[in-house]
From TrEMBL:
Designated name of the protein: ATP-dependent protease subunit HslV
Record-stated family: Belongs to the peptidase T1B family. HslV subfamily.
HAMAP family the record matches: HslV
Keywords: Allosteric enzyme, Cytoplasm, Hydrolase, Metal-binding, Protease, Proteasome, Sodium, Threonine protease
Organism, as annotated: Nitratifractor salsuginis (strain DSM 16511 / JCM 12458 / E9I37-1)
InterPro entries documented for this protein: ATP-dep_Prtase_HsIV_su, Ntn_hydrolases_N, Proteasome_sua/b, Proteasome_suB-type
Main location class: cytoplasm
Reactions that this protein is recorded to catalyse: ATP-dependent cleavage of peptide bonds with broad specificity
Function: Protease subunit of a proteasome-like degradation complex believed to be a general protein degrading machinery.
Gene name as annotated: hslV
Length: 178
């Protein structure tokens, strides 16, 4: 478990949202409270977020973006190729980061060991130290309310930020709208 951040993604019908908090922690010290850990990729058609070491995450973002370009934005083919390269490269296997990537059709967690995980429900995924808090809140809100996707992600991250000491409530969101 990375003591670094919280990233939450939600994929609805023809809509996708990713959100993250802004806290950067080093040991027991908050170094920064307004970091951006989410971004759009491949002509703003893919959303991505990271948890873990910042330098490692940038390495992974660059590598993943290169594969996305090679695969012409095909997220499924890209995560498979990315996983293969991650697992085969001795240096990459030592990186301490996870990624969450999604578009309007798919959502995937890319682990630090090169695994690719698609959530069972196919629509909600979270990573980082506050990930389980955010995931639990998102599932409950999804089942019990009619909140729009952006509000659901924001409220779930707010709850995680109130519970996890490695997560704050300086929340940023990115969306792919219909």
């Amino acid at each position: 478990m990375f003591e670094a951040t919280t990233i939450l993604a939600y994929r609805g019908e023809n809509h996708a949202v990713i959100g993250g908090d802004g806290q950067v922690t080093f040991g027991n010290t908050v170094l920064k409270g307004n970091a951006t850990k989410i971004r759009t990729l491949y002509h703003d058609k893919i959303l991505a977020g990271f948890a873990g070491s910042t330098a490692d995450a940038f390495t992974l973002f660059d590598m993943f973006e290169g594969i996305l370009n090679e695969k012409r934005g095909d997220l499924l083919k890209s995560v498979i190729e990315f996983s293969k390269k991650w697992r085969q490269d001795k240096h990459l296997r030592q990186l301490e980061a996870m990624m969450l990537v999604l578009n309007k059709e798919h959502i995937f967690i890319l682990s630090g060991t090169g695994d690719v995980v698609e959530p069972e429900d196919g629509k909600i995924a979270a990573i980082g130290s506050g990930g389980n808090f955010a995931l639990s809140a998102a599932r409950a809100l999804d089942r019990q309310t009619d909140l729009d996707a952006a509000t659901l992600v924001r409220e779930s991250l707010q709850i995680a930020g109130e519970l996890c000491i490695y997560t704050n409530t300086n929340i940023k969101l990115l969306e792919l709208k219909p």
